[in-house]
Amino acid sequence: MDRFNFDQQLNSLERNYALFKRLLSLSILANALLIIVLMMCINKEKIILVPQVAPETKLWVGQQQVSNNYLTILSRNVLDLMLNVTPDNVDAQHQEVLKFIASKYEALLKGKLANIAEVIHENNISQNFFINTVKIIHNKNIVFIRGILDEYIDQTLSGSVGQIYKLTFKVQNYGVQLETFELINNNDPQLKDINL
Fold first, then answer.
1. Which of 47, 79, 86, 146 has the fewest Cβ atoms within 10 angstroms?
2. Are 116 and 89 in contact (CB under 8 A)?
């Protein structure tokens, strides 16, 4: 091999090595940028649900937040299970409610639901709750619902009363659980700034 070919090959190898170093630097920089973008997006993921019955309504569940539509539908479902009961369906309704409850409140609520079911069975009580207004405090995942509760004893209307319920939900790891379900008074201070 002569000196000319050797110098030419050496120059070619040096150019290739310089090009390799530049490409390696660019690759490291691109990977670093991708890692930064990935870290920024890691908690921005949402699961979007499109119900068959109302495809124009989009429901989404994020890491620690849910859409207002999702909270509204879930609150209506919980109220339906808790308040639209008869002696025939109260036990099944209450079992369904327990699926929504945060585990640390389940034992407490289970006892209360058992007492309510016993009263309903003994007195042959039926109830219907008709929702008038729903107000959501979105950043806190709190829902206030105003409506009319009709109560029947032996299938005879015994009373109709306006009531307000407060439901608080815990959103964590794309899951939603009911933390509180409470009846509140019309003059409760919580309602002061809420147009319900």
1. 47
2. no
Superfamily of domain covering 61-191:
VirB8 protein (3.10.450.230)
Q: Cα–Cα distances in Å, from 181 out to 23, 32, 145, 188?
A: 60, 47, 11, 15
71 close to 57: Cβ distance less than 8 angstroms:
no
Give residue for tokens 């939603």: 176
H-state helical runs in 101-153 = 103-123
DSSP letter for each residue of 32-85: HHHHHHHHHHTT--EEEE--SS-TTS-EEEESS-B-HHHHHHHHHHHHHHHHS-
- Using only C-alpha atoms, what is the Rg of the chain? 30
Q: 156 CB contacts (<8 Å, ≥6 apart)?
A: none
Give me the amino acid identity at 137: I
Q: Report which of 119, 59, 68 is spatially closest to residue 94, judged by C-alpha positions.
A: 119
23 Cβ partners below 8 Å, 6+ apart?
none
The residue written with tokens 């909270």 in the block is 71
Summarize pLDDT for 42-75 with one digit per residue, the tens.
Answer: 666 666 655 555 556 677 887 778 888 889 989 9
175 Cβ contact partners less than 8 Å away, ≥ 6 residues apart: 61
* 90: Cβ contacts below 8 Å, ≥ 6 apart: 116, 117, 120, 121
CA 61/CA 46 separation, integer angstroms: 6
Q: Read off the pLDDT of residues 9-27 as tens digits, 9 standing for 90 and up.
A: 878 888 888 888 898 888 8
